[in-house]
Write a structure and sequence with these properties.
The complex is a heterodimer of chains A (about 325) and B (about 270).
Chain A (H helix, E strand, L loop, with lengths): L2 E4 L12 H12 L5 E5 H6 L9 E5 L4 H4 L5 E4 L10 E7 L17 E5 L8 H11 L4 E5 L6 H10 L4 E4 L10 H12 L9 H13 L16 E2 L2 H9 L17 E2 L7 H10 L9 H15 L5 H9 L3
Parallel strand pairs in A: 1-2, 1-8, 2-3, 3-4, 4-5, 5-6, 6-7, 7-8, 9-10
Chain B lengths: L2 E7 L1 H5 L9 H14 L3 E5 L5 H13 L4 E7 L2 H8 L5 E7 L2 H7 L4 H17 L3 E7 L6 H13 L4 E6 L6 H14 L4 E5 L6 H11 L3 E4 L13 H8 L3 E3 L3 H16 L9
Parallel strand pairs in B: 1-2, 1-8, 1-9, 2-3, 3-4, 4-5, 5-6, 6-7, 7-8
The chains are: A alpha/beta (about 325), B alpha/beta (about 270).
């Protein structure tokens, strides 16, 4: 069974954030189809009322702190020793494949999280995954890091190669695999759909940006504001016939909508569709002249046209 | 000794297709110069069928070119190929829809039509003495045996290389490896990879394709492109530079990114005046 642990809330400083906003982010993350959410002790003390311990993993400094904060689904500790309770996960940092030969010394640990292995994808990752699973008889969780921009694919391959436990963060916060990307990969490649409604990503995105001050790129996979914008003639035409021609999933799946952009690369289909939206009826023979004018204006402005600019040009030809 | 791999940068074609982007002639010419100086193997300069402005731009890129090969992008249409002739590029790249979804559902055509039309377009360009490369659009959702049969046909026609396009960005690394290996083992023509980032794996899939033997890797500056974009040039060099003999170097790639940011995105806030 696939168990995803989200570690987003342990990757940024929430000290200046209002408690209710952090609580809201905690609750929203739990709606994405993850199994557990990881928080640390200061965060637990801040949002204690909201925390569902059965779905929460607590990050602690020493195994003895388990007694001070009982009842969580699990505990994660960097310094976990051999004599530890079954619900304690010992976190082992393995920066790159050259350090892999060190992991056998941890084989007595019952539960481990291997964090790092940024460069594994360029090496024999399938056999490495098998070796890791063989060394550790109990729960093994993988938490790939993103120094080589491959964390999401490593997370996906771990799960697709029967790794059951994986740790990720929203938008790859903190330099890890991106939660939303992994969820969507598993949905498409494995038909794994623990949560049918992923529109929650949109709310998480807004809240995450507000709390971190970080602006998520418009073309960020799965959640970027502009990933369902479409301009080029060939793509608009294909999408209008059937969205799956050029989109891997419907915008509504992630709470977004498609936006036809008019600009330098627009074709006839897009222009006709946009005109229909505004009730402008162009003379059919002038569409190609209109396209040329749009192209000129778009090049002059160095960008696509907004609807007002487009309609202003179109009315001159209607 | 590290194996060689070659970058085909498509910032000026797929990158510019990012909705809302419209580069000027000067921007494209200067960016091509930067990429050429950095040692990029091939620059996909644009789509001649878009009209005279695009053609003039490509001609100017050609006139300044030192080492990079300059290619033009064409739909599988004689009209498009004809337009490319006006630019006298080094390479004419023709894109052919290869998945049944695209052939039957998008175009309402069939495999026989595809085979015939593609052969005609390739012949037309080869007949004029051009190097031709062919991109298989939506290859990641296509029947691999059909891709192999088409690739062998193109190889016999003297096509220089084929491009495996993950048009909707749904490949995973292992699947990429399987597809590229299967192609390489069954065709006698170099293979390239064109990955999209819809699931955040364009770079990983490009890396794995190179590992599987793909000779050419498509990139864009900043990973720009349709939807979630393409494989990011700088990130690819960072990840692959240690494993392959590839140009540009890490430092040259970093420099191209820095200069390109100023060149392409500093004037995006022009006001409307119609």
């Amino acid at each position: 069974m696939i168990k995803i642990t989200d570690i987003t809330l342990c990757t940024f400083n929430f000290k200046a954030a209002p408690e209710h906003k952090v609580s809201q982010l905690y609750s929203l993350l739990l709606q994405t189809g993850i199994s557990y959410i990881e928080i640390d002790i200061p965060l637990f003390e801040l949002i204690e009322e909201t925390v569902d311990k059965s779905k929460t993993v607590l990050r602690i400094h020493y195994p003895t702190q388990i007694n001070t904060f009982p009842g969580f689904a699990g505990y994660v500790c960097r310094l976990g020793s051999l004599e530890t309770p079954l619900n304690l996960i010992s976190e082992i940092q393995i920066n790159d494949v050259r350090e892999l030969n060190q992991i056998s010394k941890y084989s007595e640990n019952k539960n481990v999280r291997i964090i790092g292995l940024d460069d594994l994808l360029i090496h024999d990752y399938v056999n490495t995954f098998a070796k890791i699973k063989e060394i550790f008889s109990g729960r093994v969780e993988f938490c790939p890091q993103n120094r080589y921009y491959c964390a999401t694919s490593l997370a996906a391959e771990w799960v697709l190669n029967k790794g059951e436990n994986i740790a990720v963060s929203f938008c790859g916060s903190g330099g890890f695999a991106a939660l939303e990307e992994l969820i969507m990969i598993l949905r498409i490649a494995k038909r794994h759909k623990p949560n049918m409604d992923l529109s929650v990503f949109r709310k998480i995105k807004e809240l995450y940006q507000e709390l971190t001050g970080y602006q998520i790129a418009g073309n960020k996979a799965v959640i970027g504001d502009h990933i369902f914008d479409v301009e080029s003639g060939i793509h608009v035409d294909g999408i209008l016939k059937k969205s799956s021609n050029y989109e891997p999933f419907e915008p509504t799946v992630v709470g977004m909508s498609r936006n036809i952009v008019i600009g330098k690369h627009s074709g006839k289909s897009a222009v006709e569709m946009k005109l229909k939206e505004y009730g402008v009826i162009p003379k059919s023979e002038i569409i190609s002249i209109l396209l040329t004018r749009i192209r000129e204006e778009s090049i002059r402005l160095g960008r696509g046209l907004n609807d007002r600019e487009f309609i202003s040009i179109a009315r001159k030809f209607s | 000794m590290k194996e060689k791999r070659y970058i085909i940068d498509t910032t000026l074609r797929d990158g510019e297709q990012t909705p809302g982007y419209a580069f000027t002639k000067a921007q494209k010419v200067n960016l091509a110069k930067l990429m050429d100086d950095a040692g990029i193997y091939q620059i996909e300069a644009g789509i001649p069928a878009m009209g005279n402005y695009e053609k003039e731009t490509i001609l100017e890129i050609m006139s300044h070119r030192k080492n990079a090969l300059i290619s033009t992008w064409n739909r599988m249409s004689k009209e498009d190929v004809n337009n490319s002739f006006d630019c006298s590029p080094d390479i004419i790249h023709i894109t052919a829809p290869i998945s049944y979804i695209h052939i039957y559902s998008k175009l309402n055509k069939n495999k026989a039509w595809l085979r015939k039309t593609l052969q005609e377009c390739v012949f037309m360009a080869k007949d004029k003495g051009y190097e031709v490369t062919v991109g298989f659009e939506d290859a990641s959702r296509a029947d691999i045996t059909f891709i192999i049969s088409m690739a062998n046909l193109l190889s016999d026609m003297g096509v220089k290389s084929i491009r495996f396009a993950d048009t909707v960005g749904v490949l995973t690394p292992t699947r990429t490896y399987q597809c590229i290996r299967e192609l390489i083992e069954n065709v006698d023509i170099p293979v390239g990879i064109h990955a999209h980032n819809d699931l955040g794996m364009a770079l990983a899939n490009s890396l794995i394709a190179a590992k599987a033997g793909a000779l050419y890797v498509d990139t864009t500056i900043g990973g720009i492109g349709e939807r979630a974009g393409n494989c990011d040039l700088y990130q690819f060099i960072t990840a692959a530079g240690g494993s392959f003999n590839i140009m540009p170097s890490y430092f040259d790639a970093a420099n191209v990114i820095k200069e390109a940011q100023n060149l392409l995105f500093s004037g995006l806030n022009k006001t409307e005046a119609i």
